[in-house]
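Hi R.,

As promised on Friday, here is the backbone we talked about, encoded as structure tokens. Could you run it through your design pipeline when you get a chance and send me back a sequence?
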């Protein structure tokens, strides 16, 4: 994360990353070492804290993400995505339905012939 920080009010810095500007708590390395327990309590409460060294952001302390236990199979993964609202499961079961690829309806070997022609044209133009 490339970020520039300017001094804010009461430990809140104005941080710019790319096109965004927002307020976030910042702490220098020296102060973080002296008051680590206090900052860890803030992070545990849900805040994020940027750690700076000579006004340059070098790290970010944020709450650990709580990831669900890994799922076993594809159906379990899909069900987890559906529970989080990231996908919508099909209403009807698949049954015996399968996908059949029909292609473009061109005779076998057409792609190879086209590629051979292109390579021959390139070879002629290069020499």
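Update: got your reply. Pasting your designed sequence below so it's all in one thread:
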């Amino acid at each position: 994360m490339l970020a520039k920080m300017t001094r804010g009010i009461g430990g809140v810095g104005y941080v710019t990353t790319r096109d965004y500007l927002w307020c976030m708590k910042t702490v220098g390395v020296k102060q973080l070492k002296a008051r680590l327990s206090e900052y860890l309590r803030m992070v545990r409460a849900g805040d994020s804290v940027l750690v700076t060294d000579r006004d340059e952001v070098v790290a970010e302390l944020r709450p650990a993400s709580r990831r669900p236990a890994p799922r076993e199979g594809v159906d379990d993964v899909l069900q987890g995505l559906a529970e989080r609202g990231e996908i919508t499961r099909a209403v009807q079961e698949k049954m015996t339905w399968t996908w059949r690829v029909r292609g473009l309806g061109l005779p076998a070997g057409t792609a190879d012939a086209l590629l051979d022609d292109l390579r021959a044209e390139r070879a002629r133009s290069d020499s």
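One thing I noticed while checking it: The radius of gyration is 28 Å.

Thanks again,
M.
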